[in-house]
Amino acid sequence: MEHKKLGPARFLTPRLDTDSLLRLPRLLRADVHASLVVFLITVPLSAGVAMASGVPVELGLVTGIVGGLLTGLLPGSSIQVSGPAAGLAALVYEAVRTYGLGGLGILVLATGLFQVVLGLLRLGHWFRKVPVAVVQGMLAGTGLVLITGQLYELADADAPGGGLERLGGLVLLVTGTLESPTALTAGAVGVGTMALLALWQRWPRGVRLVPAPLVAVLAATVVASALRLPVDRLRIGDLMTAVQPPDGPDFVRLGQVGVLGTILAFTLVASAGSLLGATAVDRMHDGPRTDYDKELIAQGAGNTVCGILGALPLTTVVVRSTANARAGARTRASRVLQGVWLAVFAALLPWALGAVPVAALAGVLVALGRQLLPVRELGRLWDGHRSEVVVLLATAGAILVTDPFEGAVIGLLLAGAKAGWEATRFRADRERGAQGRADDDQMPLIGRK
Q1: Domain interval for residue 228
Q2: Among 218, 213, 51, 211, which Cα is nearest to 146's?
Q3: Number of folded domains in the chain?
């Protein structure tokens, strides 16, 4: 047998790919451009999610920075962008209302450690086995909670605490808004923001390279400032003052059943949302596919640091990830760079957020909540999988009237009951088919056709 002889230079030294070297500047330019696009989306969304979560705006910026500088560096996915997500806002709001802002850090810290352990045990792919109807129901329920809560912010009003109270108070909100010129002004700012978000998608593609949330919020800010409208604006403080690591009494809460349930809810929603989002984002680019276990570890590491800092939990943000892919990102450098730009902004220009009307961010969040509602999927499921629609709607309704954890448990129980019923029916159909074939075999030959 002849052995192919390798030259020493070829064997001992790495092969230089001239084409790759020539493409490197182009790849870097693409990543820098994508990072700037994502950064411009991240600033208003991070502030809005923090506002919807009932925490200081600065904590949303902290989570966005950690998502870029830490999670962005770790392996797992090359295009996904992590940060504070609207999908967790309702859960965080309920947790802060129950355990206070001081308890948020320990919840997020425990969630991060739990995610890291699950990733090290290579259980990341199991989160993709959560029934799609349950995941969509959780997102739909979160979207409904987000919308009902932000409708109050559109009128510069305080939202009631519980889901039923928010629903019941909508009629009074409408009548009160119609009777208050100040509330009507805030509502006009919010509705105008939503209208601009919708209209921006109809502009030419070159114009739409500028992120719609940035354009809408910036336009609302300019109009409100120029006309000196009497609307509420964001309250922004010192970034370092807002960071409050958990202390001793907070760790004692880990023994409470309610706290453990909230941690499980955080883990389920954040992990399933991130990994399902990775599947969707992978379809938008031709780069390396996501390693689900490594991505779960990266998300866990980010949440661990966010917990230490007392910030919001992070997860994959589909809006930013989609913008990152469409802007031409090629490597994880775009994720890291958007974290750098956000850190520079938080250090030097946080006061710029103080001019943003609360109603404008509420309009953006209502639009995001609308995107969480699987309206198109409902029509397709109803044609052939009506039981899936029942699970989806029941999960969403339970989250709306109770809380995200109880809604998720109800959805999982219903999905399990549905799977058991379908398995029983399949077994019964198979036994009837086998019995029918046995009866046919026993028939006299003269009686057979």
Answers
A1: 30-374
A2: 51
A3: 1
Residue 414 CB partners (closer than 8 Å, separation 6+): 390, 391, 394, 395
Residue 395 CA to residue 400 CA, distance in Å, equals 9
Write out pLDDT tens, residues 359-413: 999 998 888 888 878 877 777 777 667 788 888 889 888 888 877 667 778 888 8
Task: Identify residue 313 by its one-letter amino acid code.
Answer: P
**Structural tokens at position 93:** 């709001």
3-state secondary structure 359-412: HHHHHHHHHHHHHCCCHHHHHHHHHHCHHHHHHHHHHHHHHHHCCHHHHHHHHH
How far apart CA 11 and CA 14 sit, in angstroms, is: 8
Q: Which residues of the chain have pLDDT under 70?
A: 1-27, 128, 205-209, 280, 284-285, 383-384, 404-405, 426-449
Question: Does residue 424 belong to any structural domain of this protein?
Answer: no
In a domain? residue 165: yes
Return the number of other C-beta atoms located less than 10 Å from residue 125's C-beta: 11
Looking at the domain assignment, is residue 18 inside a domain?
Answer: no
Evaluate whether 71 touches 241 at the Cβ level (below 8 Å).
no
User: What six digits make up the tokens of 422?
Assistant: 């379908």
